[in-house]
Amino acid sequence: MQDLTLAFGGVRALSGVGFDVQQGSITAVIGPNGAGKTSLFNTISGFYRPAAGHVRFKGQDITRVPAPLRARMGLGRSFQNIALFRGMTVLDNIKLGRHAHLKTNVFDALLYLGRARREEAELRRDIEERIIDFLEIDHIRHAPVSALSYGLQKRVEMARALAMQPEVLMLDEPVAGMNREETEDMARFILDVRAEWGVTVLMVEHDMGMVMDLSDHVVVLNFGQVIAQGTPAVVQADPEVARAYLGSGDVHELRRKLQAAAVAHQGAS
Questions:
Q1: Has residue 102 got a pLDDT over 60?
Q2: Which of 113, 127, 175, 209 could be bridged to 262 by S-S, CB 3.0 to 4.6 A?
Q3: For the chain, give me the number of helices (H) and strands (E)?
Q4: Torsion of CA 129, 130, 135, 137, to 10 degrees
Q5: Is residue 220's pLDDT more than 80?
Q6: Structural domain containing residue 123
């Protein structure tokens, strides 16, 4: 993405934001509350249209491509606030993630003709044999989402994003509200989806221990602008990052906080 600018009335949510996400990497976007992280995600995935700048995917400018077409191209995402259909089962929620790729027309679907049946069978087999097993949620596949714990609902939302067959998986605060055990499980799934499926991961996350453990590249936003980016070690050593988080340029204090978060994160495993 390059020089993204997004405004709501007179308020600029993003101002000249630009960075690259390398294929096969885990890239984290961090920053204080109100820094513009979710606005950036919504712009990349097509829910917001920037006032200026460009979003590029596999060399193609997709700035004006609608969100459903971006999903079909390979951009899958989860949301900061769980966006599942609570009255539906886990399996049915996950199947909705494949909707953008289905080729069945309305007539076939209504009459449940041959092509619709074949697509349904292939979809269910792929979800049950790959995604549900991968995320270890076989025991809840027929449960209504409303009956699940918060941590399991977040896992189901990730499953639905994976059902979109993404090349880039965008995770908006994947471990927010989770306990330590749930956080460890989600961190393992994120690493495995990159290693086993070759999926590139772009995530927004507040858990600094997890960010520093998992990420290849970290982008720091503050007041809608990129103030630092690089490896976790480079970002930790940047006085601007310390100033954004601590109100001062005390890099040593920031490192102490990040190291404490990392120790807590490792201690939970």
A1: no
A2: 209
A3: 12, 11
A4: -20
A5: yes
A6: 83-165
